[in-house]
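ok trying again, last paste got cut off:
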Amino acid sequence: MVRRYAASVPQELMKRELGVQHWVHDLGWEEALLRLYSQPTINIEGLVGGYTGPGGKTVLPHRAVAKIDMRLVPDMTAADTLAKLRAHLRKQGFGDIEVNMSGGYDPTQTDPDSMLARGILATYRRLGYQPQVLPRSAGSWPGYRFTGAPLNLPALGFGLGHGTGAHAPDEYYLIDSTNPKVQGLDGAVASFVECLYSFA
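nice, full thing came through this time. structure:
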């Protein structure tokens, strides 16, 4: 899947869309994609500590906070990853650090040959689009509630239309489209009806 995607989507287009000049560690396009879709990550969301007010204060901070997020991939669980993080901190001599998990869930994945995936792909093709199928999203959503036990059902995202900037101040979704190749909200809603017909 990744190789097909890398061959059909120009990396320069993606660099422009993401506003980057190169991939992490100067990896090639295909290798960067393989890493994106198959490797876990840990990101620092924010750091707070010490005195940051006016003037100086020559004291050691008594408290510091770091907020992180981790992207999990199949064969990992949120509970096991949390335990491994705590064990790593302890091993490095930081067993006194308080670790609070404020949210999160296990990774999710659906078989691309499932009835759900086949119906969605057929809908895209019937509406004139050639969809790109990728192993998983680099973002997150709690699909594990469907794909995990006890349900063990396929779960995927679907819909036409265009939007970007998820969770950012400039997030948007196109309501009206003047481009016949890009659907606005009316086309997005109609695409769900078409998808239900595919499943039927």
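cool. The chain has three domains: 1-38, 40-49+58-107, 115-199. DSSP finds seven helices and four strands in the chain.
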